[in-house]
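Weekly modeling sync, notes
Attendees: S.R. (lead), two postdocs, one rotation student

Agenda item 3: backlog of single-chain predictions. S.R. asked that every request posted to the team notebook include the full sequence so nobody has to chase files. The rotation student volunteered to paste the first one in as an example of the format we agreed on. Action items at the bottom.

Example entry:
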Amino acid sequence: MYLPARKFFLFVYSQSLLVLFDQDIEKARELSTQLGAIPFTDSFHDFIGTKDLSMVVEAASQQAIFDYGKLIVASGKNLLMMSTGALLSENLFADLNSASQTTGVNIYAPSGAVGGIDAIKAAKDGLQSVTLTTRKPPRSLSDTSGIDLENIDRPTTVFDGNAVEAVKRFPFNINVAATISLAGLGPENTRVIVIADPNANGNIHEIEVIGESGCMKFTMENVPHPKNHMTSYLAVLSAIETLKRACGTEIQVGA
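Predicted structure, as returned to the notebook:
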């Protein structure tokens, strides 16, 4: 399943896809056809009121979470969000957390394009440093700073800062920084390095974690999704696996 980086939602109930929502109705129509004539709408009011709707999957943008996240959770719908960078807003995090406690629904944040999240969470209380180094082809980066990525002809560090700054600079590319920071030392204390590398064949994430339990290093060399080069294929697979776990009743391994 292709999950485009735009304001787009999938609705799931009892492992069935009920309705698609996109502000661009033609995009919704196109995907509906690909998925077998699934009902679609460009009206948030209509789609949130869909009968038997129990879960919303966001495959859109951080802005979509800011616009609709609290409304979704407050309406009693479970939420699976891909744009985890939005959670680094303290106000939004607090609002979603409060709404989920009030309605009793769950909010799921897939591990996305990286691994080792369970180990980072386990070692959380004794962590000393967490560093994420992401290396991507320039064309796979969407940088809000206006830097000229097109003319980069050698490996170039385009960002070195914390996770908060990273998700603002690269809202479609570095949601993994938010996920790692929330699992570990927090967004202010998680270092993120982004390298634009024209020689890179895919999206490479290297995580180094140092703490009382020892030193952990994880390296993911991901293949970009064939229909969206800004997203790793693994991120899509991670969303699908999270959906299966959320909708299933089997023993949860590594949860």
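Discussion: group reviewed the output briefly. Residues 117-224 form a domain with the Dihydrodipicolinate Reductase; domain 2 fold (CATH 3.30.360.10).
Action items: rotation student to repeat for the remaining queue; S.R. to check formatting next week.
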